[in-house]
Design goal:
The complex is a heterodimer of chains A (about 140) and B (about 425). Chain A has about 140 residues and is of the alpha/beta class. Chain A has helices at about 70-75, 90-100, 115; strands spanning about 5, 10, 15-25, 35, 40, 55-60, 85, 105, 120-125, 130-135. Chain A has a single domain (about 5-135), classed as Phosphohistidine domain (Glucose Oxidase, domain 1), CATH 3.50.30.10. In chain A, the strands form 2 sheets. Chain A has an 8-stranded mixed β-sheet with strand order 1-10-9-3-6-7-8-2. In chain A, strands 4-5 form a two-stranded antiparallel ribbon. Chain B has helices spanning about 5-10, 20-35, 65-70, 105-120, 150-160, 170-180, 205-220, 240-250, 270, 285-295, 315-325, 340-350, 355-360, 370-375, 390-395, 405-415; strands spanning about 40, 45, 85-90, 145, 180, 195-200, 225-230, 260, 280-285, 300, 305-315, 335-340, 365, 380-385, 400-405, 420. Chain B is globular, with a radius of gyration of 22 Å. In chain B, helix 8 links the parallel strand 7 and strand 8. The chains are: A alpha/beta (about 140), B alpha/beta (about 425). The interface of A and B includes residues 61, 78, 92 and 97 of A.
Chain lengths: ~140, ~425
């Protein structure tokens, strides 16, 4: 397939890649993430039962508790951090989460990432260049 | 590109010590992530303090190391000895007096005491409540503050026009230590206009109905929106609004909510939206809040655990609970916990409400809540709350049935040991 690169603003440096987990519905701050396993436990969430470990999270933003960041912070210390973050627009909850998780992150993208990326696609984030690259669509070679 | 002042650069150079340097470095990193162009001075901070469960991710027994890693995100161990602004504590992971009857292990209690001592020696006021505004935390319009409690941010931003973002535990702590936060988001007055219009087609009459209204509004509030409520909303006070904002900040990400004709930045609808059209308009009816109540309804089942007071009860709510409990006994086999702040409990002790509550077999507890202290009976067949925030967050963590009702509904359930189907009105 043709390489797809979406330009944006890098907010945390470094390059990483992994399977995308994409949801317009963000994860709630409290009772959203099980810190022991990295699994999403929010009832009815599209990611319910899935682990964030090593995934590139594409989320609309934060909601719920002001402790949003602390759950990602704890996940990092337990070796369960995501590989990177993609946010169409930053907010205060996700902004702090990026700083404490210390993984490559991009925002302010030229294209709507919810249209371009699907859960399961293999993506690469370059937080220095501010790019999101779709390397392989889910199911394609 | 962020511009720093000379005094800020000097702190980053370490001229005021490693603690302040690390804290300001965090805030500068955070400001860059947000895309802020400068920082502003913070005058008040409301902070998580204590041996909270998420801090267990740092395995060290050294308190300085735990604070450095979990609050400053610093690999270098620094000593917390000073805050740069007025600071008071949010809820902690236990009642510091009744921790044993809550089933909190002695080691966690000891660790909690050590961390709190560290914070109070550094100047933190141990208010220990999620309702800081009921214990002297009163930022005026335009004043920049930080808070680790989501509903407190919505309330103080909305009711008084004070300025904070929902930026989280680590950033709030770093702001308190260095006295700075990114000048971004709600700190910029021009960013505070409403975006989404919720036309409420009923008049909420009780705290329970305001809680439900917040729950429904939050669930329909898109990320990054500023909701505006309009309609014949009656005459809500701080008790109704703290419940409304608590559930709104649970199902959604709102950090500010204008109520036309009630909150100061919304003397009317036009000014609430800054003269612009809303991005979307929705109607909320009484049927909508009935449907939300159905999510936590039930009938005829035994209740083993009842908890009141999220957000922490005000003194008049404690009195109301005491009045309902006077001369009655909590069912054997049912626990009734009522949560408030230490300051309110002190008033309640002197007014005689505490003894009335305790005579009934209920407990008046402070400084925490079921969600934060994680102390509710795991084997109970059902749990009841007068707060949708507690009910919503605890449900994914339990196999027990979870019910929501008014203060009176919950106390009735505690006394009879049975939950009866409730519906607002």
């Amino acid at each position: 397939m043709k390489k797809i690169v979406i330009n944006g603003r890098g907010v945390w440096g470094g390059v990483s890649e992994g399977p995308a987990m994409v949801s317009r519905e963000t994860i709630q701050g409290w009772s959203g993430l099980d810190e022991e396993t990295g699994t999403v436990i929010e009832k009815g969430h599209p990611f319910e039962g899935l682990s964030i470990k090593g995934a590139v999270l594409v989320l609309s933003g934060g909601k719920g508790s002001n402790g949003w960041s602390s759950h990602f912070h704890a996940a990092r210390l337990k070796g369960l951090a995501p590989a990177g973050f993609v946010f169409p627009k930053m907010d205060s909850r996700t902004g702090v989460a990026v700083v404490v998780t210390k993984v490559p992150a991009v925002t302010d993208l030229e294209e709507d990432p919810f249209e371009a990326v699907r859960t399961g696609d293999w993506v690469r984030i370059d937080g220095d260049q501010g790019t999101l690259e779709i390397i392989r669509k889910d199911g394609s070679e | 590109m962020i511009r720093l002042t000379d005094p800020e650069k000097s702190v980053l150079d370490g001229k005021e010590g490693p603690l302040k340097k690390r804290a300001l470095q965090f805030i500068v990193d955070y400001a860059r992530v947000l895309g802020a162009e400068r920082l502003c001075d913070v005058t008040r901070a409301h902070l998580f303090a204590g041996a909270h469960h998420y801090m267990d991710a740092c395995l060290s027994d050294d308190i300085d190391e735990v604070i450095s890693e979990m609050l400053l995100c610093s690999p270098e161990v620094v000593n917390l000895d000073c805050f740069a602004c007025y600071a008071q504590s949010d809820v902690g992971p236990m009642d510091p007096v009744k921790w044993d009857i809550l089933g909190i292990p002695r080691e966690r209690s000891a660790k909690n005491r050590s961390i709190l001592e560290k914070f109070t020696k550094a100047g933190l006021f141990p208010a220990a409540t999620c309702t800081p505004y009921l214990s002297g935390f009163l930022p005026r319009r335009g004043e920049h503050y930080v808070s680790t409690e989501s509903h407190a941010v919505v309330l103080m931003n909305s009711l008084w026009g004070a300025c904070a973002n929902a930026d989280g535990i680590e950033a709030a702590f770093c702001s308190a230590v260095c006295g700075k936060t990114p000048f971004w988001g709600n700190h910029v007055m021009s960013n505070r206009k409403g975006t989404h219009h919720f036309r409420v087609e009923f008049t909420p009459e009780t705290v329970m109905e305001w809680d439900l209204l917040g729950y429904v509004t939050g669930s329909r509030t898109p990320t990054h929106s500023i909701p505006v409520l309009s309609g014949d909303l009656g005459d809500p006070g701080v008790v109704e609004l703290k419940s409304c904002f608590a559930s709104m900040a649970t199902t959604g990400g709102a950090e500010l909510c204008h109520i036309a004709g009630i909150t100061p930045e919304a003397p009317d609808l036009d000014q609430a939206f800054g003269g612009k059209a809303s991005l979307a308009e929705e109607i909320i009816t009484f049927r909508d809040i009935q449907a939300a109540a159905e999510l936590f309804a039930g009938s005829g089942t035994a209740v083993e655990y009842v908890s009141l007071g999220c957000p922490h009860y005000s003194i008049d709510q404690v009195r109301d609970a005491a009045v309902i409990l006077e001369g009655r006994k909590v069912n054997r086999g049912t626990e009734l916990w009522i949560w408030t702040s230490p300051a309110v409990k002190d008033m309640s002790d002197r007014a005689g409400y505490t003894s009335t509550i305790e005579l009934s077999g209920a407990q008046l507890v402070t400084s925490s809540c079921p969600l934060v202290c994680e102390a509710w009976p795991r084997e109970a067949s059902s749990l009841a709350f007068d707060s949708l925030k507690q009910a919503h967050y605890i449900r994914p963590q339990t196999r027990s049935a979870v019910y929501f009702g008014s203060m009176a509904d919950c106390i009735e359930a505690a006394v009879t040991g049975k939950w009866e189907r409730r519906s607002p009105r």
